[in-house]
Structure formats: C-alpha cells, structure tokens
Design brief:
The chain has a seven-stranded mixed beta sheet. It has helices at 2-24, 50-55, 132-136; strands at residues 30-35, 38-47, 67-81, 90-95, 101-108, 116-129, 143-145. The longest helix has 23 residues, at 2-24. The relative contact order is 0.20. The radius of gyration is 18 Å and the shape is globular. The chain is of the alpha+beta class. It is built from three helices and seven strands, in the order H-E-E-H-E-E-E-E-H-E.
C-alpha cells in the first residue's frame, strides 16, 4: 500500500512538472500547432500593428524553415492576404480567437496580387514557408498555442 502511494505521489509530481514545462514553452516569439497529424513549432516575428501587418514578409528572399510571422489583430475580423512584393512562396494559416485553425492556403505564389480570403472572424494569421503546412499536415481544425489566445479560453492554453 505504501509503495502504491509513493508511486502515485511520484507520478503526480512528474505530471505537474511536465505541465509546468509545457507552460514554460509558451513564449512570445514561438507558436506551436497540433492536430491528429502531430505537433510542430515555429519561431515567429509578431506583426501586431497596422504598419507591421502591411509590410509583413515583403522583400525577403528567404526564411529559415522553422520560422514564420504571426499577424495579430485587435479583434476577430474579415481578413484577406496577398503576395505583393513577397519573394518567397508561403503557407498562410488563418486562426480564430480561440487558437483554432479555420483555413490554410498552401503555396501562395510570390508577387500574386489575388486576394487570399481567410474568413470573417480572423484573429491571427501565421505565415510559414510554402509547403510546410502540407508536409506537417496543418489544416482547418488544427490548434495553435500562443499567449495571445490566453485571454479568451484558448483551445490549447499556455
């Protein structure tokens, strides 16, 4: 009986430590995504004002594969992106205010001026290198973890 209690106590401590480690992994410059396909993480630059969102990833000729840009709005709203002055293909991941991926546009073409609609209730948009969403399996229904979703009952809280 004592051995079982000690084992349960050790297991509880281990679970608590893992939970703390996961919360510690939530950093302002990182997003994590998960789904039935597994999990992936990216180091991100944050574009959270009008000027930063307007410039985005324009004029860059490369981006590391584990990097991206997270566009954050003040509140959910209609959003569409285009690839004006963007030199690299991108996957564009649209997310609601709970951190749920609502749509993914894969391999947006550099320089294309065609609007890429993300929906009517977009709170954040993650741009990553073209082809990575397909490679990982990131799709509508995937979940994103970042501190910006913590105020409203995130699907995957920090």
């Amino acid at each position: 009986m004592l051995r079982r209690l000690l084992f349960r106590g050790a297991a509880a401590a281990l679970i608590a430590a893992c939970g703390t480690a996961l919360a510690a992994d939530c950093k302002p410059d990182r997003v994590d995504l998960r789904g039935s396909w597994g999990q992936a993480g990216f180091t991100v630059e944050i574009a959270d004002d009008e000027q930063e969102r307007a410039r985005g990833l324009m004029f860059r000729d490369s981006m590391p594969s584990g990097a991206g840009m997270l566009f954050v709005y003040e509140h959910p709203q209609p959003a569409a992106f285009w690839m004006k002055n963007t030199l690299i293909p991108l996957d564009i991941i649209f997310v609601d205010e709970l951190g749920q991926v609502t749509s993914v546009h894969q391999n947006a073409k550099p320089g294309d001026l065609t609007p890429i609609p993300g929906g009517d209730h977009v709170y954040a948009v993650l741009e990553i290198n073209g082809g990575l969403a397909g490679r990982y399996g990131i799709s509508a229904g995937s979940q994103m973890r970042h501190e910006i979703f913590s105020a409203v009952g995130a699907v995957w809280p920090c």
